[in-house]
Amino acid sequence: MGDRDRDWDWHLRTLSSSARDSNVANDPASDSSLLQSVKKLYELCKAENSEDLVARVYPQINKLFQRSVASLSQSRTSIGLLLLAILQFYLDFGEIVLHDADPSLRTFFLSCLSREFADPVVAEATIDFLNANKKKLLTSFPTLLPQFFPLMLKLIAWNGEKLEKSFMKVFPGLMSPGSFLPLFPSLVDLPILVVALEKVEKSAGSLVGNSIASMQKSTAPEMLLALMDEAYTGSTIGDGGGDSESEDSSTIDVADPLFLDLLKDENDGITERHWTSPGMAAALQAAINTPQSDRLKHILRMAPRFLDVYFSIALRDVNNSLVCALIPLLMSRNATIFPDKIYSYEVRKRILEFMLAAFQRSPDFIALLKKPIMDRLGEAYDSPEKTELALQLCWAIGEHGGGGGSHKDEARELFEGLELLLYENLASSRLGLGQESVFSSDSQTSRKSSQSRLLCFVVTAIAKLATNHRELLPRARVSLGKVARSRISDVRVWRRACDYLGLMTEPAISLSVLGPSRPSRGQMQNPGTVKWSDGATKMIAHVPFILLANKKVHPSMIFCFQIFFQEDE
Predict the structure, then answer these.
(1) d(CA 123, CA 159)
(2) DSSP structure class, residue 148
(3) Where is the AP-5 complex subunit zeta-1 C-terminal TPR domain (predicted)?
(4) Do 479 and 422 contact (CB within 8 A), yes or no?
(5) How far apart are CA 370 and CA 319, in angstroms?
(6) What is the mean pLDDT of the chain?
(7) How confident is the model over 35-90, as pLDDT tens digits?
(8) I need a labelling partner for 564 at 20 to 30 A (CA). Which of 10, 97, 231, 520 fits?
(9) Which of 389, 268, 378, 278 is nearest to 327 (CA)?
(10) By the 8 A CB rule, do 56 and 10 touch?
(11) Nearest to 82 by CA among 44, 31, 24
């Protein structure tokens, strides 16, 4: 006990004397003994479980925290570990001394972590701190991590895969009603964030210990001189003279709004990111023309895994209104993704899978999002990415009956959009609005294949939508009849249209084959299925079985059934 008292007094005097030493007072992190004293005093308070001891320690620790924060702008030593140790004291003993840790936590993020997120030691210690206190942070300070999710993304983007496993445990805490929508574009743009951070480091020096905001201010005079030089000599910003052909000519303009938005520390809502801006164009051009850095390679692998967690939480925990609001954002970002072939494929795959899962969970979304869906159908010719999106949307419209039987007006408008897409394709046998002649034969083949695939989905969607909304059947017959009479279409499209026309002459068969895949309201049984539990008393079949002994029939009359029996265990 005597040794413990001596240790207690010695560590307490260390904190007290540091305030009187002018050198240490102006830069507390320069004295490594302060960190050890804070940790030791915390352990003693934890072990003794004495409110009196906590009350004696608190004033000295609180003063140290204030001095440390005040010295950040002049400090040459990392102070993150010291502040984290003090924050741990606040979280565990704040109720005893009536200290609200929320302002202190926000001060740490704004004043310290914004400067030291690139320090690997501070970054790892921060994530460990957040994981150790995850439950308390989520319950007592639920808005903290969602507010600073951009800063946390900068931390993981810069430090790479070595922190991915521990960061994944923190990641769900970044999501809240206020951060759910802005978080998605930030995750998709993580590769651009890495490119921007590397450009800042190259032009302004190390990111460790420097605030990006102060770096932007320090470059303002250089930007002013560059503008004056452009006005008087005609040279452009970043040229660096007539003989400059280096990568510096693609440096991102620190005054570009896109640049400022990428490097922000706090969540300020959804902001539109203009991919055609000079800053973005420079960043993308540099990323394409230069070898990928290790950090960029890491984030290209990590970002899709972050999206997996994001979408999983969205389907499990997020309310329908936010999920519905997210889908138009997914549609708009589907064609604007960092131009890495594997990365763009992985991200688009997850976007489309989530959209289809959301429509499966809530078919009403299709009716509610009628306008953006129709807009995307109108863009089906613009690029392969938009073609694929339109194709998946066509499938969802048909599969879920345009939102269900209660959305007849919306279904009619979606049907008209499908009709327009069909007629535009019939009027031209190629994608690209008559520009096929400028492409190679391989490109022509690819475009024709893409158009045929899209047409197959459109034809199927029209047939399924008319099956769900029978008032559309006459128009569907007209539309499919035009395809059946058209010989410029792909034979697969023509055959599919003929098959659906044949089905539509038999409503019962059409409902079984083209009806919804899930029970509709008021109908407990899926169309085209059998209740095997009732097999002993009744037989149920939506499709009539007709034996045609060696008789030739129209192809539309031929059906193939596979029935799988499973014995009860």
Answers:
(1) 8
(2) T
(3) 289-519
(4) yes
(5) 20
(6) 80
(7) 999 999 999 999 888 899 999 999 999 999 999 998 888 877 889 999 999 999 99
(8) 520
(9) 389
(10) no
(11) 31
User: Of 100, 24, 31, which is closest to residue 62 (Cα–Cα)?
Assistant: 100
For residue 9, the surrounding DSSP H or E stretch is helix 2-18
Write out the two tokens for 142.
């639920």
The residue assigned the tokens 């565990």 is 92
Q: Please give the Cα distance from 416 to 402 (Å, whole number).
A: 12
Distance, CA of 53 to CA of 34 (rounded, Å): 18
Which pLDDT tens digit goes with each residue over 168-191? 999 999 999 999 999 999 999 999
**Is-contact 157 303, C-beta < 8 A?**
no
C-alpha to C-alpha distance for 254 and 199, rounded to whole angstroms: 10
Mind giving me the DSSP string for 26-55? H-GGG-HHHHHHHHHHHHHHHHHT-HHHHH
Q: Give the per-residue pLDDT at 184.
A: 96
* Position 120, amino acid: P
Q: How far apart are CA 432 and CA 514, in angstroms?
A: 31
Long-range contacts of 100-104 (CB under 8 A, 24+ apart): 101/140, 101/141, 102/141, 102/144, 104/65
Residue at 91: amino acid letter: L
Q: Is residue 296 within 8 Å of residue 335, measured between CB atoms? A: no
Q: Please give the structure tokens belonging to residue 141.
A: 């300070």
**Helix axes of 370-378 and 384-399: crossing angle, nearest 10 degrees:** 140
Output the six-digit token pair for 189.
Answer: 């743009």
Cβ neighbours of 417 (radius 10 Å): 23
Domain ranges of the chain: 161-220+258-268+276-361, 364-430+447-539
Phi, psi for 83 (deg, rounded to 5):
-65, -35
CB half-sphere exposure, 138, CA atoms < 13 A: 14
* Residue type, position 352, single letter: L
Q: What is the pLDDT of residue 234?
A: 44
In this structure, how many other beta carbons lie within 10 angstroms of the beta carbon of residue 542? 17
- d(CA 178, CA 364) in angstroms, rounded, equals 24
- Residue 36 CA to residue 56 CA, distance in Å, equals 18
Q: Phi/psi of residue 402, each to 5°?
A: 65, 25
Q: Please give the backbone phi and psi of residue 205, each rounded to the nearest 5 degrees, phi first.
A: 100, -175
Best CA proximity match to 334, nearest among 281, 256, 391, 277: 391
Instruction: Return the minimum-mean-pLDDT range out of 4-13, 228-237, 519-528.
Output: 228-237
How far is 331 from 352, CA to CA, in rounded Å? 9
SS3 438: helix
Cα–Cα dist 308/123, whole Å: 23
Question: pTM for this structure?
Answer: 0.82
